[in-house]
Amino acid sequence: MKITAIETLVVNMPMKISGPAPMLGGKARTSIDTLLVRIDTDEGVSGWGEAFGHRIWPATRAAIDTLIGPQCIGRDSTAIGALMNDLQRNLHGVGRNGPAMYALSAIDIALWDIAGKLADLPLYRLLGGSPRHDLPAYASLLRYGDAGAVAHHTEEALSRGYRQIKVHEIEVAQIKAARETAGYGIPLMVDCNCPWTVERAIDMARQLEPYDLHWLEEPVWPPENHSGLAE
Predict the structure, then answer these.
(1) β-pairing, 27-28 with 23-24?
(2) Pairing state of beta strands 188-191 and 213-217?
(3) What CA–CA distance (Å, rounded) separates 218 from 229?
(4) E strands, the chain, where?
(5) DSSP of 137-184, one letter per residue?
(6) Are 106 and 64 in contact (CB under 8 A)?
(7) Maximum distance among all alpha carbons in the chain?
(8) pLDDT, tens digit, for every residue of 88-122?
(9) Cα–Cα distance, 224 to 126 (Å, whole number)
(10) Angle between helices 198-208 and 172-182 (to 10 degrees)
(11) For residue 134, with 0-12 CB atoms within 10 Å meaning exposed, 13-18 middle and 19 or more buried, which class applies?
(12) Model's pTM, two decimal places?
């Protein structure tokens, strides 16, 4: 089954923000973009993948449209391992991170989507099965920088049925607002997107200890700096 076409599409989703919209490049950021990739084959089966998107999608899209996609045309869509190995080897010079890896991820997902359709099986079955019949989902909130807004959106997530909450705040007051709104029976996670030094991260972790966090995600800048966190 040969790959005949690879198409990139951008889905733009509005963001619900209480208060002023965050600024990016001098413009108000009021939506989030997701880059989707569609792979078509000569037997009429198509697969869909996601290339993350966020703020880097133009570069990821360019990588797929001009560099990576053309290498896939004519290749066997069912030989996933061989194709992905060749692509990674051909692209190692542009870096094994960022847009190139987002692009490869989308293509890999789309190829497995095709494989699932051909086998008429869900992907978890193709990937070895699962001992579980369902998985919990958590609400991942935006960063609002305001305790009232955090409380409002936490309450909204709970009203929609979520029983786990993740916030992206970096100050104690906002995280406290999420915990007080959710109560202590709800797992609360904090993803702060690498704002602190190791020393500051340890200090903040101690300040946040009363709020019984399920986890504290990405506390340190640079992200690769893990030294000292076990102290």
Answers:
(1) antiparallel
(2) parallel
(3) 12
(4) 3-14, 23-24, 27-28, 31-41, 46-50, 139-140, 165-167, 188-191, 213-217
(5) --EE------HHHHHHHHHHHHHTT---EEE---SHHHHHHHHHHH-T
(6) yes
(7) 59
(8) 999 988 888 889 999 999 999 999 999 999 999 99
(9) 33
(10) 30
(11) exposed
(12) 0.82
